[in-house]
Amino acid sequence: MKSFATIAMISLAMLQTSVLALSAIPTGSPDGIYLSNLDTNGTETWEIVTAITLDKRDKSTSLSPMSRIELSKRQTKINCQNIEINSFDREVAAQNLIDYCGNGNWFGSQAIAVQYGGVVAYGCNYSNGQTCHSWDVRYFLESLYHGCGGNRAAWWRQVEWSATYGYTAVGRGFC
After folding, report:
1. What does the alpha-carbon distance between residue 50 and residue 116 come to, in Å, rounded to a whole number?
2. In this structure, are residues 156 and 144 in contact, taking their beta carbons and an 8 Å threshold?
3. Fewer Cβ within 10 Å of end Cβ, the chain: N or C?
């Protein structure tokens, strides 16, 4: 039992120190969905998967409200940051990430990221791949919204999956 607790604490420490290790999507990159990759020299690159077009900029995009009771069950997984972000850009980026994940979208890269306006919504993979599902990502991002506010960067730690999901300002590193 003692060794299990030690391994769990080491894993948690590794996950916590991994946050903000990825470089930002390069300045001037178009709005879109990106995957991070390492080239043969071990240098990180960002590959655009899908551009976000103007039709995804519907002002009716909104994350649905959640009850405070539901949030209190997992509140310790929320990490708020003192980085101001645009709430509309956050909603568009978040909704695009949710839509991309759909009924299950596997990514083997270190991260998937959606850049829109001044915000990047992201999912980070600290193991051998990650399948994101819209209902999980929606829950994580809505929890961040209700726990930290709509105009602050934040991330959700899902230790059991070796993953984090969140949003931050364009130009900031994450994962």
Report:
1. 12
2. yes
3. N
User: Are 118 and 85 in contact, with CB atoms under 8 Å apart?
Assistant: yes
Q: What is the identity of the amino acid at 93?
A: A
**Is the pTM for the entire model greater than 0.85?**
no
Instruction: Give residue-wise pLDDT tens across range 52-83.
Output: 865 544 444 444 444 333 433 344 589 999 99
Question: What is the dihedral sign for C-alpha 116, 130, 76, 3?
Answer: negative
Average pLDDT of every residue of the chain: 79
